[in-house]
């Protein structure tokens, strides 16, 4: 496990962020994440620590041994029009209610983006509408999106269409093509 300290120099509180590769996630960590997500999200995830499929990396904040904040990323190739590009998909951003407005979600997001910048990823992608994302430099993409819908943890239909919650942030010098179809080449994140 890698402990990232002072991941958010602009945050009023210094949060210690633990980065956990999915393969290294323990059963206790997995259950704590599932419990936190289950308390906060209004979606039945069947007690899982993920909505549709396992992620590649988790970012967590624990206070006195209790998990209070979580963010997951997927690292994958997608199609942006005819181009195959690498991207990180950000998912399951959650902060327990008593700990909100302390900069934890922003700290997790900044840590994930910093790791994305140092990877092969050209873009960070997410589905969300929170001001937090716009403040971090994400913008609504507006692209038609091709993806395989998941029904819980089972494969559903593949669809193509707009999604007003789809947001993008370039991680390098390449600009985003807002007119190109985006093929997630599978399920969302």
From TrEMBL:
InterPro entries: Acyl_CoA_acyltransferase, GNAT_dom. Its EC number is 2.3.1.-. Residues 20-172 form the N-acetyltransferase domain. It comes from Pseudahrensia aquimaris. This is GNAT family N-acetyltransferase. Keywords: Acyltransferase, Transferase. Gene3D superfamilies: 3.40.630.30. SUPFAM superfamilies: Acyl-CoA N-acyltransferases (Nat). The keyword Transferase applies. It holds the Pfam family Acetyltransf_9. The keyword Transferase applies. GO terms for molecular function: acyltransferase activity.
């Amino acid at each position: 496990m890698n402990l990232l300290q002072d991941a958010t120099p602009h945050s009023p509180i210094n949060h210690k962020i633990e980065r956990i590769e999915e393969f290294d996630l323990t059963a206790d960590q997995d259950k704590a994440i599932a419990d936190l997500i289950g308390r906060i999200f209004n979606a039945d995830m069947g007690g899982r620590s993920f909505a549709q499929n396992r992620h590649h990396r988790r970012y967590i904040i624990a206070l006195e041994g209790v998990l209070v904040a979580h963010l997951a990323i997927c690292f994958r190739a997608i199609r942006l029009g005819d181009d195959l590009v690498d991207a990180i998909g950000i998912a399951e951003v959650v902060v327990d209610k008593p700990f909100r407005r302390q900069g934890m979600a922003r700290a997790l997001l900044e840590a994930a983006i910093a790791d994305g910048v140092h990877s092969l990823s050209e873009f960070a992608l997410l589905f969300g509408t929170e001001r937090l994302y716009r403040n971090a430099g994400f913008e609504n993409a507006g692209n038609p999106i091709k993806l395989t819908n998941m029904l819980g943890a089972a494969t559903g239909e593949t669809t193509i269409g707009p999604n007003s919650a789809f947001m993008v942030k370039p991680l390098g010098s390449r600009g985003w093509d807002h007119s190109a179809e985006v093929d997630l080449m599978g399920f969302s994140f």
